[in-house]
């Protein structure tokens, strides 16, 4: 079984997309599907960071690119 997840990606620009994920998809799997390096982002569910090895449990997520440097 699969379902659609609406994703807002905030990385300088804001983009939105909807992807279909399988029932046991992890956030790591989702980032791989989107070709996003998991070390450069935070995945937020209702404003709270989620563990990347956790199972996608929401229909709406935000992926926030983390800016580093100095």
Automatic annotation (TrEMBL):
Lineage start: Archaea, Methanobacteriati, Methanobacteriota, Stenosarchaea group, Methanomicrobia
Protein name: Thiamine biosynthesis protein ThiS
Name of one Pfam family that matches: SAMP2
InterPro entries noted in UniProt: Beta-grasp_dom_sf, Mopterin_synth/thiamin_S_b, SAMP2
Domain of life of the organism encoding this protein: Archaea
């Amino acid at each position: 079984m699969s379902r659609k997840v609406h994703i807002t990606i905030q990385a300088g620009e804001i983009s939105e997309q909807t992807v279909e994920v399988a029932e046991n998809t992890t956030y790591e799997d989702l980032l791989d599907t989107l070709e996003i390096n998991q070390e450069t982002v935070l995945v937020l569910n209702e404003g709270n960071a989620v563990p990347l090895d956790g199972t996608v449990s929401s229909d709406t997520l935000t992926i926030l690119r983390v800016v580093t440097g100095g």
